[in-house]
Design brief:
Blueprint lengths: L1 H18 L3 H18 L3 E11 L2 E12 L2 E9 L2 E2 L2 H20 L2 H28 E11 L2 E10 L16 E8 L5 E8 L3 E3 L4 E3 L4 E8 L7 E14 L3 E16 L12
Antiparallel strand pairs: 1-2, 1-13, 2-3, 3-4, 5-6, 6-7, 7-8, 8-11, 9-10, 10-12, 11-12, 12-13
Amino acid sequence: MMRSIRALAITVCVLSAATLPNVDDIIRRSVANTQADWNDAPKYDFTERDVITRNAKTEKKTYRVMMIDGSPYNRLVATNGEPLAAPQADIEERKLQREIANRQRETASQRQRRIARYSRERRQDNELLQQMIKAMDFKLAGEENVDGRRCFVLEGTPKPGYQPISRDTEVLKGMRGKLWIDEQSYQWVKVTAEVFRPVTFGLFIAQVQPGTEFALEQEPVIGNGNLWLPSHFSMRVSAKILRYWSRNYTDDETYSAYSTASAEKLPGGRGN
């Protein structure tokens, strides 16, 4: 009987292993979807709530992020969780109208430079997540339910020989990460990463300390097929500059109310 039970257990393990998806295929499909989402993101306006803590002081602000002629404009709509009073709301409306007028008066070269700055910032924001895939060796750690979605769980550790492509990606040499990938859509439901050993960069004047971590959560945009966009991002940074000055802060951002960016914010329909 014991031999039969052992044989049955081995058979179950073999069958289970045979049905497990290939990690490289999970990564490849999810990265392709994430890149498509990133390409489509500028087509949407959204609401962003920021909670930033520096030096034990917390600031809370909410913005309506609006795409206007190729780059975003952040319109303040609330502070400390409360909508702006009428006088302040009027001020923000006038700021918005001035910005629309300024962009309408731009020369072609001025517009090009403005959009180029935004594109550069987007690439930098996206770079860390994309490079995390190249900087780490991933293994399938199992499956979990996240907000009712069945997900593959992948764990990543630094890949020997990884060469960072920028100063910002130096930190990946001392990070480990985790991915939750929806089994149906192959979209990133959640991504976390943490620094587990100090990483020095910038001619050895700065060091990112253990305790630095970030997390990204995403959700499907209703009515837009397989498009997923961020719903939450949090970052906790612990760093030391010149071995004397420590910098610690947290940033917690929530994103909601996605809607297609209007093409009527500028005269002539140059909204995007």
